Amino acid sequence: MNNRRSPGRDINVTGVWERNVTGRGVTVVVVDDGVEHTVQDIAPNYSPEGSYDLNSNDPDPMPHPDAENGNHHGTRCAGEIAAVPNNSFCAVGVAYGSRIAGIRVLDGPLTDSMEAVAFNKHYQINDIYSCSWGPDDDGKTVEGPHQLGKAALQHGVMAGRQGFGSIFVVASGNGGQHNDNCNYDGYANSIYTVTIGAVDEEGRMPFYAEECASMLAVTFSGGDKMLRSIVTTDWDLQKGTGCTEGHTGTSAAAPLAAGMIALMLQVRPCLTWRDIQHIIVFTATQYEDHHADWLTNEAGFSHSHQHGFGLLNAWRLVNAAKIWTSVPYLASYVSPVIKENKAVPRSPHSLEVLWNVSRMDLEMSGLKTLEHVAVTVSITHPRRGSLELKLFCPSGMMSLIGAPRSLDSDPNGFNDWTFSTVRCWGERARGIYRLAIRDVGDEPLQVGILRQWQLTLYGSMWSPVDIKDRQSLLESAMSGKYLHDNFTLPCPPGLKIPEEDGYIITPNTLKTLVLVGCFTVFWTIYYMLEVYLSQRNMASIQGCRSGHCAWPQQSQSSREVGTELESVPLCNSKDQDGVDSENGSCAATSGFLAPELLCEGDWNLSQSSKIVQDCPQFQPPDLLQGKDGQIC
Ligand SMILES: [Ca+2]
Ligand SMILES: [Ca+2]
Ligand SMILES: [Ca+2]
């Protein structure tokens, strides 16, 4: 906040607070192992409306103590965002005026569907999702969100925040000492997330931090033992005191970014998820660090794989947010899948493949300048970690999208893995893209083969001139002259999206709904016929009151159709056994309405293809057994 040891190495937030920008009206949710919302630095800002516990399936995300004294992570992240000031206790959050919610999801096995629910939970209440977790940082994992998680991220940016889009902040990862790289982390690599790395109090990349071409920016965290870590709220369960001075890792950096974004949303609530990314690119500050490979792209933005576009600066972010009008709609271009089947040579040689994106290619979408650039590759190789992939944009800007990893000896290569880079942000989209792949391994292994690749460009119809204009507009706003309450730009109204109703309907759910609908219609018709026919035949069956009522054997199809006259219950004690076996599980316990209820339960759990077999058909005997006394 105010770094006396290394002046200037801070998040530059105090001037923003002085102008009453504290995150008021914004809700940040920590998706983690729970949030102890009763500790005094959290309680006043806690949002129960935005919270949920997916591990125990209840609305209260209170962490559960465990043997390792471990589930304090979410509480620590929450404190960085919204810890209460001026209470003579512990820390103060970056956005101490914001509301803080918790989603408990990491205390147990994390499934794809849980992850998807977490990403969209209360997404009209929660504005920013702070996610300080990801795949294993062991330097040999290539992993990302699966089908549902991916769909939820996409759905969140389209429907969350009244259509302005949920903001997903993710940490770059802590596998630095294992040579890990966040381009192998599908959460960091996703275009829908804001990927945040860490620097220590001196501005250097700590030993644990991961670098990658898709990193947007960095902010502070702990470093070596001699350096200070982050002071924040802690749980007071087990050995916790409610306060810690030892929070570190990229886990500690992402929540600071989430807090700074909350400040931006207070001054301009209609910023879209892409506006936030743009403003970070436009305002993050490059600084001297001899270890960083800063490279300035054609649009004038400097990026390094270690520090992204630089340090997040709350003052610059908020001033830019205040005067920011939304970037035009997202335009994209997808190349065909380009089949290559070419060998990957050993370093220093490399395989180079090209793809030309012409004016005609971009005409339809209107794409002129770039945001994210993604490359999806399939490469076979006996040792995946020996591969090095570089992507060159038309300007010549190089991104190391696939960094070699010494520990990754996976023999399967890459199978449709998507790498992404932000390094060409703001550059023109047209021109020749070049992918260079080489094998940097030293063992004489079998040679790798580039099977196929595909290029995807994301951006907008902004021209390079529009980008330059926006850059100079923002620089003119940095004096703080617009940061008073009287200055406001009009905000478009958001969409009215009912909470959670817009959740993805999968084809299977749809099929199930159709089947349930058909069954209901069938059941109604059948029941009406049944009642009608029963009444008509009342006289003829009066005589069997004391005997067993049973259903004569008949074909499945006739029961399904339900229009046969034989479907009238008859009295025949010999057929009782047949009835029971046909009735299956519904028969034993069901009363008049039970078959329907049981079946519905089954359907919720089963695939639609199984429904017909798993769930007993409507069985007329059940329907009528309960009425023995009256009818038979
Ligand atoms: Ca709970
Ligand atoms: Ca405090
Ligand atoms: Ca990682």
From TrEMBL:
The gene is Pcsk7. Residues 61-71 have a biased composition (Basic and acidic residues). Residues 326-463 form the P/Homo B domain. The chain crosses the membrane at residues 513-533. It comes from Microtus ochrogaster (Prairie vole). The lineage of its organism: Eukaryota, Metazoa, Chordata, Craniata, Vertebrata. Keywords: Cleavage on pair of basic residues, Hydrolase, Membrane, Protease, Serine protease, Signal, Transmembrane, Transmembrane helix. The active site is at D32, H73, S251. This is Proprotein convertase subtilisin/kexin type 7 isoform X2. Belongs to the peptidase S8 family.
